[in-house]
Amino acid sequence: MFVEPLSYSTFLFKYQILPYSVLFNCHPTLLIEERTVTFFLTEVLNQMCLLFAASLLLIWTIIIRMAAPLVSASPLVEPKLPRPDDMVTTGVFSSFQNFIRKCLIAVLSYGPMPKHIAFIMDGNRRYAKFRSIQEGTGHRVGFSSLMANLLYCHEMGVKYITVYAFSIDNFKRDPSEVQALMELMEEKINELLEHSNVINKVNCKINFWGNLDMLCEPVRLAAQKLMDKTAQNTGIVFSVCMPYNSTSEIVNAVNGVCAEKREMLQKENSSNFNGHDANGGVHSEISVADLDRHMYSVGCPDPDIMIRTSGETRLSNFLLWQTTFSHLQNPDPLWPEFSFRHLVWAILQYQRVYPYLEETKKLAKKQL
Ligand SMILES: *[C@@H]1O[C@H](CO)[C@@H](O)[C@H](O)[C@H]1NC(C)=O
Ligand SMILES: *[C@@H]1O[C@H](CO)[C@@H](O)[C@H](O)[C@H]1NC(C)=O
């Protein structure tokens, strides 16, 4: 019986072992497309980068674990004055943390960075429930988590941040809870107003998107004031959606466009009152660009990443018009627990699918 000896190249193909030497010398019996080589190399590079980032992340996590008892996980729950010793230790730790954070951001910035990140801040109530603290405290911790994440995004050079703070549906919740939330918002907006010189220094523009008429008077006025005060800023753009839902945004935009068209038609009608209407009907059609102009998000690019915390997988009527090409992510931590490492992980995942996202975008544009 004749058994063909397994040649080197068949062996390689059969067992899919492609050592570097073969790849680089391009063994004549081995037809390796250029594509394979680049794919292989990018894969190796990717893995190396991931490994590097993962080890940095590991160090970061260890530091957090070590520093946690010192810093105290939620200083807002039990405000206690730090003793001088504590302050020294936390000072050292936080400057080391800052250093590592800067390193990680520098590593991340080699890849494509998102311009716009949208958050659905889910899990504040569950956080309070699991720790058996008051619901309001859960929202408070959630707010400090929001401020921290804003800062991280700013450091990473993400220019647009949008958060879902309150949906129109939330009004159906327990009235006392709605009341408490409104009070919290008023308090926080007023705090921001007090520190508006800091906000202006950071060059941060704050928008409120939604049916502001539905808010109670003090909150609405405060929100309006904050928007006016920061309207001139040209740096980071922070948009708070409250009370918001996307269908309502679209309906508002359609109404806005209709009103505009009506006005235009009337003007035209009166200007050539006894003339023959030459291009009647042409202006009456509504285009996508018209609607875009009337969305709250006018002037903002569409979100690159949409993050919904606490593992929920629904969009819940948030930015439906704007998220066609966004990368959706649903990390497990509850919103108050969402920290820097989760944000880094989200961006790494985005960078991994970036080529695919760009490809789909290009294809969609071609088909239009
Ligand atoms: C969205 O908001 C509108 C009010 O503007 C409301 O009638 C509608 O029920 C909301 N939709 C959802 C799905 O919450
Ligand atoms: C245009 O003018 C005519 C004549 O006055 C009027 O009958 C018509 O309703 C007007 N159309 C619009 C869209 O205003």
UniProtKB/TrEMBL annotation:
<protein>
    <recommendedName>
        <fullName>Alkyl transferase</fullName>
        <ecNumber>2.5.1.-</ecNumber>
    </recommendedName>
</protein>
<keyword id="KW-1133">Transmembrane helix</keyword>
<dbReference type="InterPro" id="IPR036424">
    <property type="entry name" value="UPP_synth-like_sf"/>
</dbReference>
<dbReference type="GO" id="GO:0016094">
    <property type="term" value="P:polyprenol biosynthetic process"/>
</dbReference>
<dbReference type="GO" id="GO:0005783">
    <property type="term" value="C:endoplasmic reticulum"/>
</dbReference>
<keyword id="KW-0808">Transferase</keyword>
<dbReference type="InterPro" id="IPR018520">
    <property type="entry name" value="UPP_synth-like_CS"/>
</dbReference>
<dbReference type="InterPro" id="IPR001441">
    <property type="entry name" value="UPP_synth-like"/>
</dbReference>
<dbReference type="GO" id="GO:0045547">
    <property type="term" value="F:ditrans,polycis-polyprenyl diphosphate synthase [(2E,6E)-farnesyl diphosphate specific] activity"/>
</dbReference>
<feature type="transmembrane region" description="Helical">
    <location>
        <begin position="44"/>
        <end position="64"/>
    </location>
</feature>
<dbReference type="Pfam" id="PF01255">
    <property type="entry name" value="Prenyltransf"/>
</dbReference>
<comment type="similarity">
    <text>Belongs to the UPP synthase family.</text>
</comment>
<keyword id="KW-0472">Membrane</keyword>
<keyword id="KW-0812">Transmembrane</keyword>
